[in-house]
């Protein structure tokens, strides 16, 4: 059963400008610990960060029906399985609020935009 859906679209240039203005502080504000490791390894850091930002915003929108407040972007990590497919890792303060629900995410990029869709499913 699908409980909710969230979608987000962001201009990659906005992320580039935020990095230019705030530097790595912006990345630290958006990315969790494990994501920052992946970020440091990427050649195209701006595109990676834009995709993660869009994915987290999509997840936040989908979670909106389950959350009242107190969730930060760092509480949601978008990691990759062995095949490169993104998956959502929620910190305990978020996970306990959605109980047995599963959050799925898909990310896409093109030259100027990054987009993501998140779906919350369960029995």
Write the layout of secondary structure elements.
Blueprint: E1 2-11, H1 12-22, H2 24-30, H3 33-41, H4 45-63, E2 76-80, E3 86-90, H5 92-98, E4 102-109, E5 113-121
Antiparallel strand pairs: 1-5, 2-3, 4-5
Helix pairs in contact: 1-4
Record keyword descriptors for this entry:
two-stranded antiparallel ribbon; alpha+beta; Ribosomal Protein L22, Chain A; 43% helix; single chain; globular; three-stranded antiparallel beta sheet; 123 residues; 5 strands
Task: Give an overview in words.
- The protein has helices at 12-22, 24-30, 33-41, 45-63, 92-98; strands at 2-11, 76-80, 86-90, 102-109, 113-121.
- It is an alpha+beta fold and 123 residues long.
- It has one domain (2-121): Ribosomal Protein L22, Chain A, CATH 3.90.470.
- The strands form two sheets. Strands 1-5-4 form a three-stranded antiparallel β-sheet.
- Strand 4 and strand 5 (113-121) form a beta hairpin.
- Helix 1 crosses helix 4 (45-63).
- The longest helix has 19 residues, at 45-63.
- It is globular and about 40 Å long.
- The mean pLDDT is 94.
CATH topology: Ribosomal Protein L22, Chain A
Residue windows where pLDDT falls under 50 for at least 5 positions: none
Radius of gyration: 14 Å
Order of helices and strands: EHHHHEEHEE
Distance between the termini: 6 Å
Shape: globular
């Amino acid at each position: 059963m699908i409980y909710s859906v969230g979608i987000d679209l962001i201009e990659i240039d906005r992320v580039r400008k935020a990095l230019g203005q705030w530097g790595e502080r912006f990345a630290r504000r958006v990315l969790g610990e494990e994501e920052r490791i992946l970020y440091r390894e990427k050649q195209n850091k701006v595109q990676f960060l834009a995709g993660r930002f869009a994915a987290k915003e999509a997840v936040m929108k989908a979670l909106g029906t389950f959350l009242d407040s107190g969730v930060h972007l760092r509480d949601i990590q978008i990691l990759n399985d062995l095949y490169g497919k993104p998956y959502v890792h929620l910190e305990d303060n978020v996970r306990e609020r959605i109980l047995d629900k599963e959050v799925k995410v898909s990310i896409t990029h093109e030259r100027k935009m990054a987009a993501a869709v998140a779906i919350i499913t369960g029995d």
